[in-house]
């Protein structure tokens, strides 16, 4: 691939990975990140670990069965260079997997990576403005990756981090907007019921609200539920019935 073609592909990859559009499923961008990284010279396989909600385990994605298996080992056993890069936010480059340090620190991961035919790995953090979102794993041979390839891998990881961070922020904003709208809708219903009850029973608005709230508490009902009952229920029967003229 010529240099202009490669640069054009890199720009397209960065723009695609940084795009925050899409649903809550982040496996697609993760797979594309791993796929793009495999195209870097010297990289034989790529995988990604990304954090999700506290109740959910980390998402492990690899481009190819081999990388996927190695990422799942790190996610399931909580060990491996991806885990360390994720926790610290620091990169681990050209780590020789046959070194005694690797066998001692990541025994299960190291054994499986060597069995799969890899002798070295590079782990790069997926981070955005101090938010540690996960890590990218590049599997290669012990000869190491060129500094340019590591820099490009980090640029791709940074791009996907931007997309992920903005996606999470957008979902958070939508959730808060939905909660605010629900609260406003409830307030409108309560105000409408308060006005109707005040007119029906010849009370002040504050007295009508106190009556509604007291009934809701005494009968363990939501205030909005009582309000809707007042609005839609019969005016001449029930606890909030119009007084019978004497």
Outline the structure in words.
This protein has nine helices and five strands; from the N terminus they run ααββααβααββααα. With 246 residues, the chain is an alpha+beta fold. The chain has helices spanning 3-18, 27-38, 65-77, 81-88, 100-105, 107-115, 147-201, 205-218, 223-232; strands at residues 45-50, 59-63, 92-96, 120-128, 131-140. The radius of gyration is 29 Å and the shape is rod-shaped. The protein has a five-stranded antiparallel beta sheet. Helix 3 runs antiparallel to helix 6, helix 7 crosses helix 8 (205-218) and helix 7 packs across helix 9 (223-232).
Order of helices and strands: HHEEHHEHHEEHHH
Structural class: alpha+beta
Main sheet characteristics? 5 strands, antiparallel
Estimated share of beta-strand residues: 5-15%
Radius of gyration: 29 Å
Mean pLDDT: 81
Task: Please list the strands of the largest sheet in the order they lie side by side.
Answer: 2-1-5-4-3
Unreliable runs: none
Q: What is the terminal-to-terminal distance?
A: 96 Å
Helix content: 55-70%
Number of strands: 5
Shape: rod-shaped
């Amino acid at each position: 691939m010529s240099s202009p073609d490669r640069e054009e592909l890199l720009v397209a990859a960065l723009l695609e990975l940084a795009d925050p559009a899409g649903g809550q499923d982040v496996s697609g961008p993760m797979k594309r990140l791993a796929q793009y990284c495999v195209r870097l010279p010297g990289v034989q396989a790529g995988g990604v670990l990304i954090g999700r909600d506290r109740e959910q385990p980390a998402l492990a994605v690899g481009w190819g069965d081999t990388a996927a298996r190695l990422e799942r080992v790190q996610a399931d056993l909580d060990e491996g260079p991806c885990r360390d890069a994720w926790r610290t936010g620091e990169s681990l480059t050209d780590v020789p997997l046959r070194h005694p340090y690797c066998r001692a620190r990541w025994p299960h991961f190291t054994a499986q990576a060597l069995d799969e035919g890899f002798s070295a790995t590079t782990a790069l953090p997926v981070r955005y403005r101090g938010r540690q979102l996960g890590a990218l794993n590049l599997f290669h041979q012990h000869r190491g990756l060129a500094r340019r390839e590591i820099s490009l891998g980090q640029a791709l990881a940074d791009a996907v981090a931007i997309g992920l961070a903005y996606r999470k922020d957008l979902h958070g904003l939508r959730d808060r907007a939905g909660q605010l709208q629900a609260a406003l809708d409830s307030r409108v219903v309560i105000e409408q019921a308060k006005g109707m009850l005040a007119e029906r029973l010849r009370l002040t608005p504050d007295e009508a609200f106190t009556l509604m709230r007291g009934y809701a508490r005494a009968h363990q009902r939501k205030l909005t539920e009582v309000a809707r009952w007042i609005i839609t229920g019969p005016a001449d029967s029930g606890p909030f019935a119009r007084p019978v003229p004497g």
